Fold these 3 entries.
Entry 1:
Amino acid sequence: MKISLLVFAILILGLAQTTGAVVVYPASRCDGCTSVQMSTNAKFQGVGYRYVVNLSDGVLKYYKVERERSDVGGRIITLALPQEPDAALVLYAHVASAFYAATNTTMLYRTSVALPAAGVAASRSPTEVAGSNDGKLHIQLPATVNSVQLGSSNRATKYHGYSAESTERQYVLGNGGISAQSAYDMIPDGPKRTSVERWVQNQNNWSTSDALLFDLQASIQTGKILGGAPIKIEVEVDFSDGSHADVLYSSEDQSCKYVPGSAYDSHGNHIPDKVSDLHGREFDFTGPGNPNDHFNWSNLLAAWDVEFGSSGGRGFHGWACTSGTDPTTGHTVYSCQLVR
């Protein structure tokens, strides 16, 4: 990733929703290079118009690379003729350089900027709004909860007040659906996870108090993106019930996706993404938190055909969970194992 021809199209923050098509201009990375080295880099790319970006110094150069026969000896020589770069791409190069510096060259950006939930004063600090200061961008979903409960016994609809089929529609109408969700709705992949990813991806739901993110948004409004170095932004999504999960913006595939293994419920339990994640974990639903956590956890495991209370004595082979008492806290805890 240091010097490459990787093309990246920063489509984070829902850019496609506001600017239309994004045009990507491939560029070669040449961090820390001199002007001569950048010219040589362009020549190695071959004949044509070539962008070379130096993120260390925030420099973008644009060349027309040609080959011609020398008047002396008739040799074929390669020329890199400087051109005037697009102003929007120059601006973007400066912003990308700022990301490069702010992330210690990793291009994976974390920040403590948070969005206030409905009814929370915008003047409050990120830690007051998000309840954490772990160096990741925090986004809090709206606090308005849909209290309507469906009569269906379907585990995906019973406790959330709306069906999975209506999630996308509610998202479009004003995010009424996602406000009632929890981190359990990020697993498995489906309409509910997608609705959260899309809500977070929408740049209208991002704060402008972070100067670097604000500059990034401003620089890409033209829809012109400079290639050369993928930018990633890690976001912790804080749900209204106290659970949380991470979402990763990546310019490499223009995505906003849930990070596997990042979901925790409101009781602090690490939510499994797959049945094998149960190994070595204990689950405690005692104390304050979303009273539906235990229900959601049980139904998640039921979907994986995990049995409860089975020790294999009935010829059962598969994952099974049992409960016990923690000798220190006196809480009921659950653990699971693969019974063979």
Entry 2:
Amino acid sequence: MAGSEPPRELWEEMVTADRTLTGAQFQFSRTTTDARRAWLSRQLRGGDRPTALGYLATFSEDAYELLPDLLWLGLSHAWAGEVRNAIGRIPKAKLLPGLAELLPPLLDEADGDQDGYDDYATLLESVAAWYLLHVLCRRAEANPDPDVRDVGGSFAERYGALWQGK
């Protein structure tokens, strides 16, 4: 069967499913804002995460309000890529101040956790939040844990020229 053309019926089934999903997402986007965001938050915290992340990647107007949930979920390597996609759709003018407010307490929680620092640094890298990445690197480099310091040094080596004006 390798190399043969897929059955037309299967393709049509996929097209129908895609149209159904798009229609359902649109209808969901028209529900009450507070109720929709509460529902999405519950899904991100332990419900149907793939559907919630898929929705936020398409209808991004709710992503900013769910940024705390997304940052929490982004620490899971299984969801990190999809979380970065959803966060990356937030307009930068809103995203950067939100990250600047939320990141310090999250780093307090991640203190001494190499993976936490690395995950947040990767997120900041993916949304080109260079100043915040600089802040994270400086904080990591001052951490007593050598693994956390390595995260800061590694990202500073790659991107330090961006915040040093070189």
Entry 3:
Amino acid sequence: MNNEPETLSKRWLMVSGLIDDDSAVLLPTISVPGPRSALSGIGPYELFVEDATGHVLARAAVGGGFSGDQLQPFAVTVPVIGEPARVVLGLGNETLAESRSDSALAAPKVSSHKPGSIFRAGDTLAWGTAHDEGITYTVNFTANGQDWRKLAVLLSQPSFKPDPQVLMPGPGAAFEIIAHDGLTERATRLPVEIDAPLMPLVPWPGDGEGASLDFNVAIDADTLGAASLLADGVPVNAVVKLSSAGRVLTIAPRSPDATASYTAVVDTTLQAEDGRSLESPVTIDFQADLLEPQDHARSWDPATQAALAARAPADDPNEAKAPPIDEKAQPPALFGEGQIKLEVGGGQMAPARILLCEQSNDGELLGLEMDFETTPGDWVKIAMAQSEDGQILATAELGNRAALKSEGQEGDDWQLYISKGIVTARGQINVVGQTANFALTGRCPV
């Protein structure tokens, strides 16, 4: 019999907040895959992470280099072995801020569906009653039991209605619901059988290869006869093809006419490789004067994406202090998490990364950059800027397509606002023949 105690695994916590000379505010901690570059450097303030008995699990020096009267942000990543119960930020013998875990936090208990039951398009996941203020939830999904995708973050209520367009049937389909109290988390996994119609994630009018429909599953190439093209209402010859992964369907005129108004049509005989048929016909209007060849390199520096990617930590289970960070090897920037709703030729709800928040001296949000995936590896980036008179400009970079710009006055359809680190943004992207409305909520990077 093996009587050796069970070895606890190490995980990494990013602790962040706002700090002044003699006051501070701690923000909810975030679990990260590995060490990140510290924000604010090493200073006179000391951060402690303790377990329920008061044993120090990790510590780090933070702060320094501040100027002005406003609270300044800090962030540091520390390795933790054990269950954190308290985070303390102090200066000498004085405690400036602390946060404690919720001892009553439990893994969510799903009340809407039983394990192994059928989850139909339009169903709502529900898991018990609402918790106290400060508890948030994350919902993840997998089709194969291995590759997980975030469906929602920062949920304040114990329920969520997934967008049917992002659900894929599969042998290992399951939801994961994670409850966070700002320091610890508890998770529940619910295996299900997905019953969802085949619909495009997003139809995009016009790029160098014509109109396109992005799906979250591979399309059966033998059913491409479902696609056709009209020019001013008259059928014309079209080039119809699939991407190498089979998930992006493009339709373009074989002989483009700059004076024609094109309509791409896909009927319900289109099928996925899993046998499902398109739920309803799809039409996309576009014009040939937008079909100019584009540079198929990504529209933002791949090094930026690599910097934002998670990095695995070194295997050192005895480490109790934050190690020195190699600035050349670590991500130079952090990003915040959010949720975006995008409506273009349908609708899509997806997690978003908030890359940048630019604020004025009085805290007003002047600029914002975000990105999100429509299909795995296919990123959309949106940048917003607000002028003093309330005019808001939005620029969207849709993968290898031409950048789209729109602007509007702050009001019902346009907004750029921040309060206590939470961003609310709304705007529109004007595409030929239709308008894509989007709405974002989330946290700024720290």
